[in-house]
Amino acid sequence: MKRYYKIGDFRFAVESEQELQVPAHFSLFETDDHNAETICEIQMTDKLPEISGTIVHRTDDVIISEENGLESRYLSLPGDDHPYAVYRELENGNIRIYLGASGADEIMKYDTTFTSLFALEKRMWEKDCLILHSCSVTYGADETILFSAPSGTGKSTQGEQWKIYRGSRVVNGDKNLLTRKNGIWYIQGWPVCGSSEICHNEEHRLRAIIMLEQAAEDCITKLEGMKAYSKVYPEITCNRWNRTRLIRTMDLIESLISEVPVYLLQCTISEHAVDILDRELSARE
């Protein structure tokens, strides 16, 4: 099988001798455009390749090595010493992915593990895009606002409040791709949406970023400079172990917070929290 995908402005093909059960949310990004920049070849195997090259990064779910300027990733589930897949860059610019045959069916079920096979955050960095841990909600006719915060703070909850009290629609419940075009920032679809299960392959102009904190009373504050940066930076998906990618990502965040309003919303779960944010956004139009 060979299928073509477009995520943001990155076009790639996935090919495999076996028919793959691609997760439903990832399938939303399939395209009829066969002008692929990169071919990702998936090979099922009973024995994954051993680690080679110099290890440059290690966590409990990935080991990354480099050899002759090419990157390999050994992907594991947290707490499991045995990789479920190996991502390997080839000299021709394409990718080969070795997938453990015994666990392939389980890996293919889930957006997170399937998407991790392609190192997409690296491809988005090459396109000068940012991936923000956030819930996107429609605002007005053609814009969106983003609710961002550490997991468990209430991004999806605030998104639901806007649905109830303003008739808004959640575009993606967990992560959004941010792209700058002609000086304007947009959100684009991303194939991972967490427990929200809300994922749409859409593009909307970005109106504002709302950093959330739970509180006993509702209060909104406009953030500037380092205060905005220090809130947004931890929620960006970035290869922080790679200095070149990190510096470019930091530059992009600086552009983002200087061009898109960032607010801190300390809030309850209430219509009042929606009201004060709506008034603030409307006042700055």
In short:
With about 280 residues, the chain is of the alpha+beta class.
Walk me through what this model shows.
By secondary structure, the chain is α+β, with helices and mostly antiparallel strands. It folds into two domains: 2-118, no CATH class; 130-283, Phosphoenolpyruvate Carboxykinase, domain 3 (Alpha-Beta Complex). It is built from eight helices and 17 strands. A hairpin with a 2-residue loop joins β5 (62-67) and β6. α6 (225-232) packs across α7 (243-259).
Main attributes of the structure:
285 residues, alpha+beta, Phosphoenolpyruvate Carboxykinase, domain 3, eight-stranded mixed sheet, five-stranded mixed beta barrel, 8 helices, 25% helix, 37% strand, elongated
Figure out the total of helices.
8
User: What order do the SSEs take from the amino end to the carboxyl end, as H and E?
Assistant: EEHEEEEEEHHHEEHEEEEEHEHEH
Give the strand line-up of the largest sheet. 1-2-3-8-7-6-5-4
Average predicted local confidence, pLDDT? 94
Can you tell me the number of structural domains?
2
CATH topology of the largest domain: Phosphoenolpyruvate Carboxykinase, domain 3
Secondary structure class reads: alpha+beta
Largest sheet: 8 strands, mixed
Strand content: 35-45%
User: Which CATH class of the largest domain applies here?
Assistant: Alpha Beta
Kindly report how far apart the N and C termini lie. Answer: 49 Å
Question: What would you report as the Rg, rounded to the nearest angstrom?
Answer: 20 Å
Helix content: 25-40%
Residue windows where pLDDT falls under 50 for at least 5 positions: none
- CATH architecture annotation of the largest domain: Alpha-Beta Complex
